[in-house]
Design a protein that fits this description.
- By secondary structure, the protein is mostly helical.
- The chain is built from 15 helices and no strands.
- α6 packs antiparallel against α7.
- The longest helix has 34 residues.
- It is globular and about 65 Å long.
Length: 350
């Protein structure tokens, strides 16, 4: 019975993709399934997405992105290491400012505000929140709303501005599909992802596939391009799984908290655009590409946006990978540091 629900839900997600394409949405294969699934879930209609769908979608996206990391692109990324570091600092500052605002006006304790504001993965931040006994439901809802807002606002804004295909740098990409080579890529990415998952590393289904594709491409080993229908399927599965996170009472749970989160996200997008413009004065990376790199969205969502809009996929991917590793690697330590500061201030002086 559950399998029938999954099949019917996937059919609805595909319908959303075709409808979004007919309406000329940006990245229709992602946004269509996301919006139609979220709308149905909020209205209590029986749609469900299995966990394996997101894993498969993330693996497809990871493989697709990894094929852009030719030796030329790796050299380009290496020359812009300082920009990637600025992106990480920017993300950490956004999280810090968001924490102060959310703690003061969102009516939550400091630790919940901290993990809800960190620009990291929703699953990883929720696990950290549980470990430090913060409000997991608030943290998860904050990150779900953040990703939804960024995924919807950024592509539509870029479409309005006509920002696409701005990266004219020649890419030595393998565009030929070899089905045997493609199957080998899938198997290699699966085994690598399982290893990352075994060691409980973040986002294993994206990074496992990305790692394998980057290693092969950097050595000029081209097994196969990703077939276009498979790329579309990856976006559909990703959008379907994102929309599935919304529950009927999502916007009724702590409305003031979510309202503050929404304001913080809008402000973060504006700051990302302004910062991208400032950085563009010191580098040859287009503003549109820098804005995607600094946008507080998820790794998969922002990088697939760069892929569809042809806006410097390797640079945008590098921005978000560095940010993900940096934020996840420092969030727990920084929380303990600030917690000790608060405790010291609270101690009465003798």
């Amino acid at each position: 019975m559950m399998y029938l629900k999954y099949i019917s839900s996937l059919a609805i997600a595909l319908l959303g993709a075709y409808l979004a394409q007919w309406l000329q949405f940006p990245i229709p294969w992602l946004l269509g399934p996301l919006l139609i699934t979220a709308l149905l879930k909020i209205n209590r209609l029986p749609v469900e997405c299995p966990p394996t769908a997101r894993k498969l979608g993330l693996s497809i996206i990871g493989l697709t992105l990894g094929l852009y990391f030719t030796p030329e692109m790796l050299q380009l990324i290496a020359t812009h290491g300082w920009v990637l570091l600025l992106g990480l600092i920017f993300a950490l500052l956004l999280g810090g400012v968001g924490t102060i605002i959310l703690h003061r006006w969102g009516k939550v304790d400091f630790k919940t505000a901290w993990f809800a504001s960190a620009i990291g993965g929703a699953n990883e931040m929720s696990h950290l929140a549980e470990h430090y006994q913060a409000r997991v439901d608030h943290v998860a809802s904050a990150h779900t709303l953040r990703v939804l807002m960024v995924v919807i606002i950024v592509p539509f804004f870029y479409q309005l501005m006509g920002w696409h295909g701005l990266d004219h740098r020649a890419l030595d990409l393998n565009m030929d599909v070899d089905w045997f080579g493609f199957c080998v890529l899938i198997l290699l990415s699966y085994f690598c992802s399982r290893i990352l998952q075994h060691y409980k590393l973040p986002n294993p289904w994206t990074f496992g596939a990305l790692f394998i594709a980057v290693i092969l491409t950097a050595q000029n080993i081209h097994l196969s391009a990703i077939p276009t229908p498979v790329l579309h399927l990856g976006q559909v599965l990703l959008g379907w799984s994102l929309g599935n996170k919304f529950k009927p009472d999502f916007f009724n749970t702590a409305p003031q908290f979510l309202s503050i989160v929404a304001i913080i996200n809008l402000s973060a997008l504006l700051l990302a655009g302004l910062s991208a413009y400032a950085i563009s004065q010191w580098t040859n990376i287009p503003v549109a590409t820098l804005s995607l790199g600094l946008a507080p969205g998820g790794v998969a969502e922002m990088t697939i946006t760069a892929k569809i809009l042809q806006l410097g996929v390797p640079i945008v991917t590098a921005f978000h990978v560095v940010r993900m590793i940096g934020v996840l690697g420092t969030t727990g330590y920084l929380y303990r540091f600030f917690e000790k500061l608060q405790q010291n201030k609270a101690k009465p002086s003798l």
